[in-house]
Amino acid sequence: MAVTQGKWIKLNQKGTGPGARSSHAITIVGEKAYAFGGEFKPRVPVDNTLYVFDLNELTWSVAEVTGDIPPPRVGVTMASIGSTIYVFGGRDATHAELNELYSFDTCTNKWSLLSNGDTGPAHRSYHSVATDDRRVYVFGGCGFAGRLNDLWAYDVVDKAWAKFPLPGDNLKGRGGPGLVVVGGKIWVVYGFAGMEVDDVHFFDPATEKWVQVETTGEKPTPRSVFSTVAVGKYVFVCGGEVDPSDLGHLGAGRFTQEAYALDTDTLVWKRVEDGSGGGDHPGPRGWCAFSGGRRDGKEGLLVYGGNSPSNDRLDDIYFFTPCLD
User: Fold this and answer.
1) Which CA distances in Å does 23 have to 147, 215, 249?
2) Closest CA to 271 of 1, 2, 54
3) How many whole angstroms separate alpha carbon 184 and alpha carbon 161?
């Protein structure tokens, strides 16, 4: 049976946290979430402080860090494998795209610069990342010369980048897509390719082939910069931008609030009944920081902040738990 229900809960924060922002990143390690980067005013990075949110106590703190601390940036991504966080790319205060890969050891609170320059993916922002037990995958984003459609993997054991074959022209370069690993395959879902798109593709590392799939069911409308997570065989898509602003990144487009689940076995979408309109629902938004992880022993999606339909940056935090049949 397909997923048809999910539950949001608003987490009431204590202490001084990052505050309102968008185009930032967050990732969960154990029972803590780490937030970095972002903007309050469009295209102006706020800071390079690493904030820590305790998912049980609901308290914020600031990590006392050492090492190669990344400069402030927007459109940045974070992901974690074990106790280590990986931060890639983004855009600095001069609007220049970046391509450094940093790691942060949550046991020692030390930043390390792992790669930059000609090593690894080209400079980019508003790309997407996903992980498995050993690799950090980077796909797409906005580069020096337009939107990208390349897929890379950083092996955290071998400490080396690998570039995968490029997809065909049907997978256009894009920013703000969903990127998840399900069943050993890397899935690319929707995104902005000059317009909001609704195509779904996966790359199979075993065959080194890209496949575009045809999905059916209650398909989400084309969108980008949504929050996404993989739970089991399902890919969840929550919110996002469905119509870009005429002002580009300086304005607020039209945002949506629905949640959908894609069954990667049957390729059927289902609308998820998730309490839309209630006080514990995040409502329409995009450009959020989000991360998969566990809270109270249940796997789900953490969503923090983002941009609202009124072009105001948000500072609230929600956790979504799907009800799996």
Assistant:
1) 17, 29, 10
2) 2
3) 18
Q: Round to whole Å and give the CA distance between 13 and 7.
A: 19
Among the listed residues 73, 124, 135, 147, the single catalytic one is 147
For residues 136 and 125, what is the distance between their CA atoms, to the nearest angstrom? 16
| Entry pTM | 0.96
The pLDDT, as a whole number, for residue 324 is 75
Query: By CB neighbour count within 10 A (0-12 exposed, 13-18 middle, 19+ buried), where does 300 fall?
Result: buried
| Residues sharing a CB contact under 8 Å with residue 283, sequence separation 6 or more, in sequence order | 257, 308
Identify whether 147 is a catalytic site residue.
yes
Query: Residue 278 in contact with residue 10, Cβ under 8 Å?
Result: no
Residues 10, 15, 17, CA angle at the centre, nearest 5°? 75
Residues 177/156, Cβ–Cβ less than 8 Å: no
Give the integer Cα–Cα distance in Å for 212 and 225.
20
Give CA separation, 301 vs 74, 85, 203, 317, in Å: 21, 17, 23, 11
Asked about 223 being catalytic, the answer comes back as no
Catalytic residue among 91, 135, 223, 313: 91
Q: What is the pLDDT of residues 10-48, one digit of tens each?
A: 999 999 899 999 999 999 999 999 999 999 999 999 999
